[in-house]
Amino acid sequence: RPLPGQEVSVKVLGALEDGGLVERDPRLIFVPGHGDVVEALELGVPTMQPGEVSFFLAAFPYAYGRPGSREPDVPPEAPLLFEVTLLEVRDGPDPQPLPPAVRLRLGSQRRERGNFHFARADFAAALRSYRLSLRALDGPTTAPLGPEEEEELREQRVKCLNNCAAVELKLGRAEEALAACEAALRISPDNGRALLRRGQLLAEQGRDAEAALVLRRALELDPANKVIHTELSRLAKRQSAPTNT
Q1: Are 180 and 138 in contact, with CB atoms under 8 Å apart?
Q2: Which of 71, 90, 109 is the last residue of a domain?
Q3: Which of 12, 150, 195, 237 is most enclosed, with most CB atoms within 10 A?
Q4: Is 20 within a domain?
Q5: Does 81 share its domain with 109?
Q6: Average pLDDT, the chain
Q7: Which helix or strand (DSSP H or E) is residue 81 part of?
Q8: Domain boundaries, position 34
Q9: Are the CB atoms for 50 and 34 separated by under 8 Å?
Q10: What span is annotated as the signal peptide, if there is one (predicted)?
Q11: Are residues 146 and 62 in the same domain?
Q12: Which of helix, strand or coil describes residue 193?
């Protein structure tokens, strides 16, 4: 049976109660416990042995949850029947050197899974997926990255860090959100999304002079952005307001 941290390959069919097929994947690859698949598979596949075929009847909390899904097309609160064949078990990919394209694909898959969780307001799961994506992107490769792969790696890491900042804000952790923004800006100093959020967070901390500098830089890069104009106007009003003595 799969051990913690090992990667599995499974063949999956998923059907609604009326028999309508909503999911078909001849080779789904994931690490149980990483939140990359629905919970029915997270819980069920580790009980299987290679070559085994199992059926899992999943109530909606263990499938696509209360809202359902657009892709695959699953109605709200829908239970699903999964037919799962465990094809292969192998050591997890994170500590192993991988070809650059494989490592980039792994990072992208985990980030997209984080977006799935974020859309469903499961912010803890989203943060876990984004952190796993960053770990995949930072892992060893079997060959040096080419210029295009280096650029894609930077872009993916910045996207993940910006997403981490958004999740940390949803979880009420402003300091962690600010740290994620600053990490993104160390990679891409002119990233508009990170600049705007950093400026907003600095303003919330009362660090108005720093916030104004950051927001002005964001405005230089995106002069038509109404949110930046609003934030700068708010700062200007606060700085010009008389203080009580």
Answers
A1: no
A2: 90
A3: 195
A4: yes
A5: no
A6: 92
A7: strand 80-90
A8: 7-90
A9: no
A10: none
A11: no
A12: helix
| Both structure tokens of 188 | 């891409």
Residue 51 region by backbone torsions, left for phi larger than 0, else alpha for psi between -120 and 50, else beta: left
Percentage of residues of the chain with pLDDT beyond 70: 98
Residue 78 lies in a domain: yes
Give the tens place of pLDDT for each residue, 1-48. Answer: 898 889 999 999 999 999 999 999 999 988 998 888 899 999 999 999
Task: Give CA 49 to chain center in angstroms.
Answer: 30
Amino acid at 112: E
> pLDDT by residue (tens digit) across 114-139?
998 898 888 998 999 999 999 999 98
Do residues 157 and 137 make contact, with C-beta atoms less than 8 angstroms apart?
yes
Distance of CA 140 to the CA centre of its chain: 20
CB-based contact 5:96 (threshold 8 Å) = no
What single letter denotes the amino acid at residue 209?
A
Identify whether 2 is part of a domain.
no
**pTM for this one?**
0.79
1 belongs to a structural domain: no
What is the predicted pLDDT for the residue at 245?
Answer: 53
Q: Are strands 7-15 and 53-58 parallel, antiparallel or unpaired?
A: unpaired
